[in-house]
Amino acid sequence: MYYEIRRYQSQPGRREEWVRYMEEVIIPFQTAQGMNVTGSFIDDQDEDGYVWMRRFEDESNSEALYAAVYQSDRWKNEIGPIVNGLLIPEKTVVTRVSPTPASPLR
Question: Pfam families, alphabetically (predicted)?
């Protein structure tokens, strides 16, 4: 099992709009496809920063979920273009982490 910690930078002044879109559209869509979203956070030290986490059982699980989400017509035609307008894509940072043996997230 592993997690993705994804840090995004919204377009200046658009974080509230981004969070609303994440919570109303993206997270429900991804969870409906089987994605396990484990957290959604605003960055208290960066007015345009946003962080979220997803959990995957293994590499084949993540590959299947990535395909279900990002290769879908809805993502390509509807959600993806809106995401690209609300975020600064080149500032996205994705960190893959594995919980330690004593971690409560295990």
Answer: NIPSNAP (PF07978)
